[in-house]
Amino acid sequence: MNSTVLKTDLALPADWRDFVALTKPRVMSLVVFTGLCGLLAAPVTLPPVLGFTAILCIALAAGAAAALNQWYEADLDALMKRTAKRPLPDGRMDRTAALHFGVGLGAFSVLLMGLALNWLAGAVLAGSILFYVVIYTIWLKRRTPQNIVIGGAAGAFPPLIGWAAATGDVTLLPLLLFTLIFLWTPPHFWALSLFVRSDYAAAGVPMLPVVSGHRVTRQQIALYTLPMGVAAVAPWPLGLTGWLYGITASALSIIFLALSLRVLANRATEPAEMGPEKKLFAFSIVYLFAVFGALVADHWLLA
């Protein structure tokens, strides 16, 4: 990595807010929510203390992965306007402190999950951290425009972990939830990358809009939306959920598809501030919260 662009040689002692910022709290909220939904949709109800412990471990692991991501990508973050004020590129924290914080947080979360719940959940939790840091951050992100396609698996683990924490096993429903998030990640992230393309270009990150342009990216968004919708609805006809989830997932997926087709039809060379790309990105977050919320409501109200 090129460290000459960083200010870490003059880094000030970090305070607690910098360590919190390393965990990417806004991103963590979606990770924790989908993990909680996987836990609550499982056929086993954990005692509250164990349920809280499982979700705490998922949150700590997500924070650890984010911290290690920022430790490794400090040079890239310094080159992009939207990330230049993070603790490392802004010189508020030493890189060694970020590395120790990420490793310590990750190791603690895995050990706690294994000891308090079960080692299958602990193993999947460890795998999610390693996948995000090693496979996505270190191996894929700087090398291929398919980085977010393969790397998207890292964000798909939480419902699988929540389910495994409750049951000690993995069945078809959590695998379908994993697949849903895996297929949701490319259109969600590419919609974002379309209107921050210049940031990625400046940092030399080969995101799809930088390498292949707007038209191909818009086509890929629409193409990934179709199997994503199938994965979202599939638990209903397979008898794994009830009508409440099925109808909600179907309606939301239709809206997602309609928005992706508006993105596909857009011919602007630079996405507008309130254009279809921005609207799809905003809805994609609502979509995942709503689909997983419907999963839990379906399980508890129709069981």
From TrEMBL:
Its main location: membrane. The chain crosses the membrane at residues 27-46, 52-72, 93-113, 119-139, 160-183, 221-238, 244-264, 280-302. The gene is ctaB. PROSITE patterns: UBIA (PS00943). GO terms for biological process: heme O biosynthetic process. It comes from Allosphingosinicella indica. Carbon 2 of the heme B porphyrin ring is defined according to the Fischer nomenclature. GO terms for cellular component: plasma membrane. This is Protoheme IX farnesyltransferase. It catalyses: heme b + (2E,6E)-farnesyl diphosphate + H2O = Fe(II)-heme o + diphosphate.
